Amino acid sequence: MLKGYTLLELIVVLAVVGIAATVVLPRLGFSTSVRLQAEVREVQSLLQYAQRQALLQGTTVQVALYSLSDDKEQGQVDPQVSNGETNLDTHFEQGVIATSLDSGTPTLEKPLVWASNDIKMAFRDALSDRLFPVNSLIFEFFPTGGSSGGLLMLQMDERRSFINLNPITGRQILLTEGEVQEQLYSN
């Protein structure tokens, strides 16, 4: 008589292992890292798109970034209006404008917008020596390819990612925490 497992037994074991993995893996912290990386890629894509639009249209393009998580915790602004849509106009008034001088070129009426309930932000412009927590931030891209520039930190739980936006070229560079520490403390 042959000994072995039936196909049904193997399928049941694989199903149990699959269910256990979906319950256990998110608790190990992988999901936070993956979600943060996805948000960082989304912000980078929006910044790159804004730079391209500024070059193609010959106008200044703004990108508004909003961290709605801090507002709820600190009780500052309720981002929900009565019809259930997110009201970002009130955040726009509280924003830090990441621009050092008036370009004098026409600007698109509405900025490109990114908002997150899970991400906290901090920002450092060229004149600062440290990162400042912000709930909203506006970057500008100019027809020449340049930008308002600055260092943006996106944080979810204890994980952080940094995007350095070059004011001359408008190029975005993803930095490690070590590289940021070196930049902040070498000046």
Describe this protein's structure.
- The structure is a single chain.
- The chain has 187 residues and is an alpha+beta fold.
- It has 5 helices and 9 strands.
- The strands form 2 sheets. The chain has a 5-stranded antiparallel beta sheet with strand order 5-4-7-8-9. A 4-stranded mixed beta sheet has the order 2-6-1-3.
- Strand 8 and strand 9 form a beta hairpin.
- The longest helix has 28 residues.
Indicate the topology.
Layout: H1 7-24, H2 30-57, E1 61-67, H3 68-74, H4 89-94, E2 96-98, E3 112-116, E4 120-124, E5 132-134, E6 136-141, E7 150-156, E8 159-165, E9 172-175, H5 177-186
Parallel strand pairs: 1-3, 2-6
Antiparallel strand pairs: 1-6, 4-5, 4-7, 7-8, 8-9
What's the total number of strands?
A: 9
Structural class: alpha+beta
User: Per DSSP, what share of the residues sits in E-state strands of 2 or more residues?
Assistant: 25-35%
Strand order of the largest sheet: 5-4-7-8-9
In one word, what is the shape? elongated
- Assembly state here? single chain
